């Protein structure tokens, strides 16, 4: 019986437009903030890049939690494990590429 309530609560949570509206508004705010920062030239290039990376990371979390519902579901948290594995791959590829490019610049 408790599982039935849990399913009903999750189904209602998925169908609730409130979460989608909040996620949509947060996505718009983060996108407009990044766009405005680039257009307004209000900070140095390094600080601008760091700020945009932070805004992009927040945008990823908004997409994952409000639209893709990564915290919901039954059983083991396969979504969480897949996200961690994906993050490890991305970090390895990005920093490996940066390391190779910096090494190539030193050689030439």
Architecture blueprint of SSEs:
Layout: H1 2-15, H2 17-40, H3 45-67, H4 78-107
Helix pairs in contact: 2-3
Transmembrane segments: 20-40, 47-68, 80-101
Keywords: Cell membrane, Membrane, Transmembrane, Transmembrane helix
Membrane topology: Multi-pass membrane protein
Short description:
The chain is mainly α. Helix content is about 85%, strand content about 0%. It is flat, with a radius of gyration of 19 Å.
Describe what this molecule looks like in 3D.
The structure is a single chain. The chain is an all-alpha fold. It is built from four helices and no strands.
Summarize the amount of helix as a percent range.
over 70%
DSSP strand tally? 0
Mean pLDDT: 83
Structural class: mainly alpha
Proportion of residues in β-strands? under 5%
So how many helices? 4
Distance between the termini: 69 Å
**Sequence of secondary-structure elements:** HHHH
Q: What overall geometry do the principal axes of the alpha carbons give?
A: flat
Largest sheet: none
Overall radius of gyration: 19 Å
pLDDT under 50 segments (min length 5)? none
Protein name: Cytochrome o ubiquinol oxidase subunit IV
Main location: membrane
Subcellular location: Cell membrane
Keywords: Cell membrane, Membrane, Transmembrane, Transmembrane helix
Question: What features would you highlight for this structure?
Answer:
108 residues; mainly alpha; 4 helices; transmembrane helix; transmembrane
């Amino acid at each position: 019986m408790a599982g039935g309530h849990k399913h009903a609560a999750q189904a209602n949570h998925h169908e609730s437009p409130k979460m989608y509206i909040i996620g949509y508004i947060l996505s718009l705010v983060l996108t407009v903030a990044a766009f405005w920062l680039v257009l307004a030239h209000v900070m140095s290039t390094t600080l601008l890049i760091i700020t945009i990376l932070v805004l992009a990371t927040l945008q990823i979390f908004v997409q994952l939690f409000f639209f893709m519902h990564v915290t919901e579901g039954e059983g083991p948290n396969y979504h969480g494990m897949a996200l961690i594995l994906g993050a490890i791959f991305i970090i390895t590829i990005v920093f490996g590429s940066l390391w190779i490019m910096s090494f190539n610049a030193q050689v030439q």
